[in-house]
UniProtKB/TrEMBL annotation, chains A, B:
Keyword hit for Lyase: yes
InterPro entries with a match to the protein in the record: Aldolase_TIM, HMGL, PYR_CT
Entry keywords, A to Z: Lyase, Metal-binding
Domain of life: Bacteria
Species name: Altererythrobacter rubellus
Residue span, Pyruvate carboxyltransferase domain: 6-280
Coiled-coil region list: none
One example of a Gene Ontology biological process annotation: L-leucine catabolic process
Record flagged with keyword Metal-binding: yes
Protein name: Hydroxymethylglutaryl-CoA lyase
GO molecular function: hydroxymethylglutaryl-CoA lyase activity; metal ion binding
Family: Belongs to the HMG-CoA lyase family.
Length: 302, 302
């Protein structure tokens, strides 16, 4: 049996940290990113362009980006929730600076959650994200899109697969770099993941890569990653140690842990380019900085 | 898509508690078991017949068993590591008492771990367990067998699938009630689970049911349960809250949590007869008794 390698998108610096109550210094964020590059992460979500009043932890987004190592083998993602965010992303590249390499757009598959999280209904999100992708492309920067709350909404409960697939179809028309489905609140199960990614795969017909974003809130995160892999997904978001959560989603605990994802994949014969031991060492270093153990089970067992 | 229902074997009272540093009173154990019956568990591992010097928590095995509610719809399992254990199990039924309904035999798929855990090499374990199953049967009590460390050994590392399958073949000849594969130290991955249970299924040819026993030490427990389900396993060990571990396996943390298993199954359209809300309530009651939060993610998110 041959196995396709996977690609890790290390979201620790953004999704992982945005929920931290204490502000992490720009310098510490940059040290974390350098160490992540050191353990083999090659694509990293480094910041989000949100209003500092909403997510104070991301107030230094431009400073973090200005301090990123200029490595040819790295891809830096900046998250944007609206056109203003895209403009901030583009601005990081002005004056010949490297800036970010990719804009991550986010569209919530629920009217209620979308309105609470970024002031948009689904229809408004589709219109806004269409503009965002076009705008980014016009400025020569790659853009990808994440459909969040794709497996359930903290306010509305069930999210219909048709809703998610309709959004995906509208967005696919803009030819983004990739389309991700995110279980933002960690309610999804492997059966649901197989079903929804199976349908997305069919819809995209191999023309646009799929990415998966899971949270481990109910213990299903790693099972969902495996189900997604089986459904053809080869790009996975994860955060070092399982840091993270969403400040606007009640009880949405951490992302799946990078170490746990890599352990499962590596011991299934699936390569990721990540040095697991080095990731665990980075976890222990950062856990000491935060003064608490991180959720990753693999790092605890080490 | 139709889904086969699963059967939960609630191992909290034995595998879950044996590692607890403080001795739980017989009365509390019985209250825990009654509450587990209350949330819908119908098969329970209630005690093990080991020497109290080795596992002090199980010193009251006979007292727990004497106090079990005499319910026709319940199956009580007593674990035995050798013939002496089987004799103790049989003795619980003497004098017209209900006692236990089933003997759980255990055979370690590693010479080193087997010797440390129960003083047996694999070959000695095969001989002993053959006798144990025959002995139980002769006394009119059902016996099933668990092949432990089937996915890896804390001392030897890799455990070869052929080793596990050879043990299974030897044991299948004794026609036990079921054969379980246990990832005692929580190192297994879904790819490994699919492979090994797939091969076991082939070997058993549907004549003997399969059971799966996973620990979540490296975060793969729920993913492994899903892979096992896909490979045809319908009986799953789990412990309330994810209590548990093995005192003789270094860093072998808890069993997969009953709540997390049931959540995944229930939200995949797979019935288990367990009332998830009631299980979570029982978790919170017992967590308060122990004075600490239990690992189950679902119970934390509730």
């Amino acid at each position: 049996m041959t196995h396709n390698a996977i690609e890790l998108v290390e979201v620790g610096p953004r999704d992982g940290l945005q929920n931290e109550p204490d502000i992490i210094s720009t310098r510490s964020k940059l040290e974390l990113i350098e160490r992540m590059l050191g353990f083999g992460a090659r694509r990293l979500e480094v910041a989000s362009f949100v209003h500092p009043a909403r997510v104070p932890q991301m107030a230094d987004a431009e400073d973090v980006i200005a301090g990123l190592p200029d490595r040819a083998d790295a891809t830096y993602i900046g998250l944007a929730l609206n056109k203003r965010g895209v403009m901030r992303g583009i601005a990081t590249r002005e004056g010949g600076k490297r800036g970010i390499d990719q804009i991550g757009c986010v569209l919530v598959a629920s009217d209620t959650f979308g309105q609470k999280n970024q002031g948009q209904t689904i229809a408004e999100g589709i219109a806004e994200n269409r503009d965002m992708i076009r705008f980014a492309k016009a400025e020569g920067i790659r853009a990808q899109i994440t459909i969040s709350a794709a497996f359930g909404c903290p306010f509305e409960g069930e999210v219909k697969p048709e809703t998610v697939l309709q959004i995906a179809e509208e967005m696919a028309a803009e030819a983004p770099e990739e389309i991700a489905l995110a279980d933002t609140i960690g309610v999804g199960t492997p059966a649901q993941v197989s079903d929804l990614f199976g349908k997305l795969r069919e819809l995209l017909g191999g023309k646009i890569p799929m990415r998966a974003h899971f949270h481990n809130t109910r213990g299903t995160g790693i099972a969902n990653a495996w189900a997604a892999y089986q459904a053809g997904v080869l790009i996975f978001d994860a955060s070092l140690g399982g840091l993270g959560g969403c400040p606007f989603a009640p009880k949405a605990t951490g992302n799946i842990a990078t170490e746990d994802l890599i352990y499962m994949m590596e011991h299934s014969g699936i390569d990721s380019g990540v040095d697991l031991e080095a990731a665990i060492t980075t976890n222990h270093w950062f856990a000491e900085k935060l003064g608490r153990q991180l959720p990753s089970m693999v790092a605890r067992a080490a």
